[in-house]
Amino acid sequence: xxxxxxxxxxxxxxxxxxxxxxxxxxxxxxxxxxxxxxxxxxxxxxxxxxxxxxxxxxxxxxxxxxxxxxxxx
Length: 73
Prior knowledge:
Blueprint: H1 2-27, H2 36-61, H3 67-71
Helix pairs in contact: 1-2
C-alpha cells in the first residue's frame, strides 16, 4: 500500500509541475519573445498542442477515479 501511495504522490507532483509549466507559458506569453516566423508558428500551434497535453496530465492525476477513460474499459 505504501508503494502505491508513493507512486500516486509522485505522479500527482509531476502532473502538477507540468500543468504549472504549461500555465506559465501562456501567462508570460512566451511567443512574444520570438521572431516573426517563429511567432506565427507559435501562435498557430501552441495551444493546439499544449492544451491536450494539460488535459492528459489532469486525467493522470486522478487515474483511480477515471480508470475507465484512461484504459478504455
